[in-house]
Amino acid sequence: MKAYLSRRYHFSASHRLHTEAYDDARNREIYGKCNNPHGHGHNYIVQVTFSGQVDPVTGMIFDLAELDAFAQTSLIDRFAHTNLNALDCFANHVSTTENLSIEVHRIFAGFPAAHLEKVHIEETSNNSFEYAGDAKLLRGTL
Ligand code: NI
Q1: Which of 11, 70, 102, 124 registers the highest number of CB atoms within 10 A of its CB?
Q2: What is the tally of structural domains in the chain?
């Protein structure tokens, strides 16, 4: 019996949207206030969705405590209270929530107990982003 399980995690971080591919004026035009040199913060809400077989004995796909431990080490400890732009994964990628979704997908795809279906990230109450994997990107371009 295949079932789906979603879990939400929260962290706060700052970022600035800016690409070296364009000059300052063009950056301001593209990113507006998000290009402010001092950066700004978000309370990100990350929702990860997994699928897997329901264990006939436990009645569960997997133990949520295992996922929480994985999320603590791989997501929260790494991203919470950071400047996203200073992280290695954003050294060559703009710290948009589209790119954050791809990176978070890469991370949770490594959770061994179930298959990652998708990542959903709320950046603000009005903006949310999803990423469900892409064969090319999964080979490691980000
Ligand atoms: Ni922002």
Answers
A1: 102
A2: 1
Q: How many CA atoms lie within 13 A of 15 on its CB side?
A: 27
Sheet holding 128-131, edge to edge: 2-15, 40-53, 115-122, 128-131
- What's the CA-to-centroid distance between 56 and ligand 1, angstroms? 44
Residue 59 lies in a domain: yes
Query: Is 34 an active-site residue?
Result: yes
Catalytic residue among 34, 98, 115, 117: 34
User: Which pLDDT score is estimated for 134?
Assistant: 76
Digit-coded pLDDT (tens) for 25-79:
999 999 999 999 999 999 999 999 999 999 999 999 999 999 999 999 999 999 9
Domain ranges, residue 125: 2-136
Alpha carbon of 101 to ligand 1 centroid (Å) = 14
142 within domain boundaries: no
Q: What is the CATH number of the domain that holds 10?
A: 3.30.479.10
Whether 141 is in a domain gets the answer no
Judged against a pLDDT cut of 80, whether residue 139 lies above it is answered with no
In this structure, is residue 57 part of a structural domain?
Answer: yes
